[in-house]
Design goal:
Helix 6 crosses helix 11, helix 8 packs antiparallel against helix 9 and helix 9 packs across helix 11. A five-stranded antiparallel beta sheet has the order 4-3-2-1-5, with helices on one face. The chain is of the alpha+beta class. The protein has twelve helices and 16 strands. A hairpin with a 6-residue loop joins strand 15 and strand 16.
Length: 406
């Protein structure tokens, strides 16, 4: 059990274990402690060189982005029925394990003992059932609370040399059958198209997707470096957890491109962003919202677009706007392509997508990008026909959607 109230948390930034303090009074306050010239920044837009103390009426977006939501939040609520779960409590539960390089701990409280290792090979050979995944979540909840998202997922440690969970495990969902295989197939197509993705694999029964964290980077001396990470919603100053989750669907892909330009990232990042948007559109992923794009960084001068993640063909699933209502197909994008009040979320024509690539993302030959993506989709579908882990019905449904989009 955690204290009833948590007024202060110690904040680590990468290997700096006592880099700052997060204080909750009537507002939130972050203080850098003993800042040095090379002090890593708590957020891309919150450097110690600008000011040592930062205040906000709400939790800072770089911290809010990792607060558990959806399935994981409900599991925490069930595990701690009498425990307050304020943002400060949730950060204490996240500890040092959140995506990115921030860690949180209660002052004068010893760290929790490390969780037992679970290798990727063991996970791949695990036969999935809802009960098995429930046991997995219960065993690793204390080490895996630092990952946001609505679908069932957990983080587990797989290597003794890395002191934090290094694998993300996503499970099947009753509401979205075949979700793990769906995302695996999309990631395979992206990889074959030359788009950067995390390392990924599918369990032998096709029910769990296993991903390597993309915010951990090996160093020349054999150690692991934790990279800073902020999703686009956080960089835009939005808090989107729980009832405010619709905020991640507000905006446009053009606005994200403009933000990349404002951050003065190398131009190649705009080109990579176009690849990700074009892929999202061609595979009919209607959930490519603001939290599914992000920036990795070591410093303001060393930042780049994160690889593609959380991508599925949502158009094969049906949903109801209200209980007992008619089932509908997901046939719109999460965001508008272009900015402007008269723009829509309707999937764009090829000419509109080419215009977005050339005018907004400054790609010299956007048509070649689309051809490369289509080639990756065709090759992935050919491989899926020989992959017993991909259910035939799922493959046919996704194939039909992809054929219509291409």
């Amino acid at each position: 059990m955690l204290p009833e109230k948590i007024p202060l948390l110690q904040v680590s930034i990468g290997h700096e274990s006592n880099a700052g303090q997060l204080i909750k009074r009537s507002t939130y306050e972050f203080r850098y402690l003993a800042p040095q010239a090379e002090q890593p920044r708590v957020a891309l837009l919150m450097p110690a060189s600008a000011q040592l103390t930062w205040q906000d009426g709400d939790l800072f977006p770089v911290m809010d982005q990792n607060l558990p939501e959806g399935d994981l939040f409900m599991r925490l609520r069930a595990a701690f029925p009498k425990q307050p779960l304020s943002p400060m409590h949730l950060l204490a539960l996240i500890g040092k394990n959140g995506i990115g390089r921030l860690g949180f701990r209660l002052p004068d409280v010893p760290p929790a003992p490390p969780a037992p290792l679970l290798t990727k090979e063991t996970l791949l050979n695990t036969a999935y059932t809802p009960e098995v995944f429930d046991e997995l979540v219960r065993a690793y909840l204390s080490t895996g609370a630092g990952i946001a998202g609505m679908q069932p997922k957990i983080m587990v440690p797989d290597r003794p040399t890395i002191p934090i969970p290094s694998l993300i495990v996503k499970a099947a969902s009753p509401s979205y059958p075949g979700l793990a295989a769906n995302e695996y197939l999309c990631l395979k197509a992206a990889h074959l198209a030359g788009i950067a993705t995390p390392k990924f694999d599918l369990s032998h029964d096709g029910q769990m997707l296993i991903l390597d964290r993309f915010d951990l980077s090996p160093t020349a001396d054999g150690h692991i470096e934790r990279l800073g990470f902020e999703d686009i919603a956080a960089l835009a100053g939005l808090r989107v957890r729980d009832v405010l989750a619709d905020r991640k669907y507000q905006g446009s892909y053009q606005r994200i491109a403009e933000l990349i330009k404002q951050l003065q990232l190398p131009r190649i990042n705009l080109h990579r962003f176009f690849e990700q948007v074009a892929f999202t559109i061609l595979v009919r992923n209607g959930d490519g919202h603001l939290k599914n794009y992000g920036i990795l960084y070591r410093s303001a001068d060393d930042a780049w677009l994160a690889p593609m993640f959380d991508v599925v063909t949502t158009a094969i699933y049906r949903y109801a706007r209200y209980s007992g209502g008619p089932t509908l197909e997901d046939r719109t994008m999460a965001l508008k392509l272009f900015s402007g009040k008269h723009q829509t979320r309707t999937y764009p024509t090829e000419d509109e997508l080419l215009t977005f690539g050339s005018k907004v993302c400054e790609v010299s030959n956007p048509r070649e990008v689309l051809q490369r993506i289509r080639g990756g989709m065709r090759e992935a579908m050919q491989e899926a026909r020989r992959d017993e882990r991909i259910p035939g019905t799922l493959r046919e449904e996704i194939g039909k959607v992809w054929d219509e989009a291409m």
